[in-house]
Amino acid sequence: xxxxxRFSALSLIVLLSxxxxxxxxxxxxxxxxxxxxxxxxxxxxxSTGQPxxxxxxxxxxxxxxxxxxxxxxxxxxxxxxxxxxESLGMTFTRIPVSVAEGGINIENAQSLQxxxxxxxxEGVAVHCATGNRVGALxxxxxxxxGNNIDSSISEGARWGMTSxxxxxxxxxxxxxN
Length: 177
Hints:
This protein has helices at 2-19, 27-32, 53-61, 81-87, 106-118, 132-144, 149-158, 164-175; strands at 39-42, 45-48, 64-69, 91-94, 123-127. The protein has one domain (24-175): Protein-Tyrosine Phosphatase, Chain A (Alpha-Beta Complex). The protein has 8 helices and 5 strands, in the order ααββαβαβαβααα. α5 packs across α6 and α6 (132-144) packs parallel to α8 (164-175). By secondary structure, the protein is an alpha/beta fold.
């Protein structure tokens, strides 16, 4: 009887492991790269602060195929990020999001969601300077999808919105909608 129970338990574990999504991203190597505010909120999707050129190389070698930057062109990264990304064989897309200019909005949230849908199942890293704008846009998208304000803010925090100031700005904008 014990053998049957062990066999059944082992069979269940094997069955469940085959149903779980398997990431092609090498998360262990990516975590070791010490990328600012590194998050892996979904299978095949990372949310981070600004990666360095060396960290972009680690991303490319670890399965990331697409980089989405939420930083406006005028924000200095210290290097030509698009050129580095493309030289590593990844695609680069920019959605310029400026908090001061009202960039945390439904249009930018929908643009980000459309790209995440387009790249579904492929390695994607979304970043801004610190990861906070990434989480903020996710909060807006969650709210637009019918979630309440608290759960939308919580999901944004899971994606990297750690700034209490930005959480307050997002909360205010969601209350007004």
